[in-house]
Amino acid sequence: MANDDCLSILLCGVGGQGTVLAADILARVAAHEGLDVKVSEIHGMSQRGGSVVTFVRFGSLVHAPLLSYGEADHIVAFEATEALRYLPYLAPAGKMLVNSEEIKPLPVLIGSAAMPENTLEFIAEKGALVIDALKIASDLGNPKGTNIVLLGALSAQLEFPEETWRTVIENRVPPKTIAANIAAFKEGRKRGTDSR
Predict the structure, then answer these.
(1) pLDDT value at position 107?
(2) Cβ(15)–Cβ(49) below 8 Å
(3) C-alpha atoms less than 13 angstroms from C-alpha of 98 in its C-beta half-sphere
(4) Do the strands 36-42 and 7-14 form a parallel or antiparallel pair, or are they unpaired?
């Protein structure tokens, strides 16, 4: 793990995509495995579709929750433009997982700004694993499960037991959504495993 024995993960997206829930599940998985965990969330205008970023750090002893540029061992981006925004945080040997969805912010919708061009191609060239997590979740009948699909893909890159992930998800999501979320997690994990 980088930075002594700490693993540092940055999750980013826009309001309403479930980044905060995903970070909470990740932190609970690490804590369940006996690790020290620190979490820091920055919400911005999240309720209006603004940027949301969460830092999750875990290891035998974590001194601070925040990251600087070049320190994220993993970045999980729920939206392509947010992946581009937070790319400078990726460590030289870090891994990036990106949902291919591109959400136009209000300035773009009203014509006062433009979306960056070729975002997905650019981040793929940087070594990111790009998956259509929204389509995967939607195909499973659970479009709100995009965040769990991404967690599944991330789980394939981490050393935590699959059973721990499943237990935490089952205890964290609403009871009526457990089966759908476990299905989303399993499909995401398969995509993450296939890419290794």
Answers:
(1) 62
(2) yes
(3) 27
(4) unpaired
Distance set, CA 191 to CA 2, 27, 97, 156, 174 (Å): 25, 22, 11, 8, 25
Cα separation of the two ends of the chain: 18
The DSSP call for residue 144 is: G
SS3 4: coil
pTM listed for this prediction: 0.90
pLDDT at 1: 39
For the chain, the residue count is 196
The whole-number mean pLDDT for each consecutive block of 10 residues of the chain, a chain of 196 residues, reads 74 89 97 96 62 93 90 96 94 96 71 77 92 95 95 97 98 95 97 78
Record the tokens describing residue 185, joined without a space: 């997690």
Contact between 111 and 146 (Cβ < 8 Å): no
| Contacts of residue 64, Cβ cutoff 8 Å, sequence gap at least 6 | 38, 57
Residues 6+ apart with CB under 8 A from 48: 15, 106
- Inter-axis angle of helices 19-32 and 162-172, nearest 10: 130
Distances (CA, A) of 7 to 48, 64, 111, 150: 31, 12, 40, 18
Give the three-state DSSP class for 3. coil
